[in-house]
Design a protein that fits this description.
single chain, 221 residues, mainly beta, Immunoglobulin-like, 4-stranded mixed sheet, elongated, disordered N terminus
Length: 221
């Protein structure tokens, strides 16, 4: 067997052995249900994903050292992301490594890249298109003062969420990786969230009902 055939066989075996993760599956190194994007050398695959509002994208590293930078363009491009997001870099594992996940609660187009080394310059960029869910039924509430979260920032313990919503509503709290930290039925009046075991950082509270939606940021120290 000559060198060219040997090289071709080695590449074929490597590609065959490389793990693959199905979209909208929880069977991935992160263990989070969502649309899976695979990161490898100078590439996100698929480069563009389209999801509905409230769905999650999961990034899995199949080779190299990569992050997910949706905060500021490494190339100096003028991004207009509805919200910023960033997931710390990780090295790949033999079976793929979890970089992280993000739940997109605001509709729009999100650009991101890998800010490690010259990866973005080599073309390691991606895009997430988030479709508005039930646009004719759910609207962002203009009366944001109807919901209050305090203390904010919180030093741990209990957080009080006060609401005057009389209709059935659900409150979900997400961390910066898009993981649900808590979910409860929001009642009119006082509602309590126990954040004693939460890590310090910023969180997003998303409140939805049949025809209303609000998002609020809060910090746990």
């Amino acid at each position: 067997m000559n060198f060219r055939n040997t090289l071709f066989l080695a590449v074929a075996i490597t590609l065959f052995a490389m793990p693959s993760f199905q979209s909208m599956s929880q069977d991935n190194p992160c263990g989070i249900e969502g649309v899976v994007v695979e990161a490898s050398n100078f590439l996100y695959s698929p480069e563009v994903v389209q999801i509905d509002q409230g769905e999650t994208v999961v990034w899995v590293n199949l080779g190299g050292f990569h992050d997910v930078n949706g905060a500021q363009s490494t190339l100096g491009d003028n991004w207009d992301n509805p919200e910023t997001f960033y997931i710390n870099p990780v090295s790949s594992g033999t079976d793929g490594a979890c970089i992280g996940a993000h739940t997109f609660t605001v509709a729009g187009v999100y650009e991101y890249d890998c800010s490690i080394g010259a990866h973005a310059q080599a073309g390691m960029v991606g895009q997430v298109i988030v479709n508005e869910s039930n646009p004719t039924q759910i609207t962002e509430s203009p009366q944001r003062s109807n919901i209050s979260i305090h203390p904010n920032p919180s030093s741990g313990g209990l957080i009080l969420v006060q609401s005057d919503w009389s209709t059935d509503a659900v409150l979900r709290c997400f961390d910066l990786r898009g993981r649900v930290q808590d979910e409860l039925r929001l009642m009119e009046g006082d509602n309590w969230i126990d954040v004693s075991d939460w890590k310090a950082g910023m969180y997003t509270a998303v409140i939805t009902s049949n025809d209303r939606r609000e998002t609020h940021k809060f910090i746990v120290k």
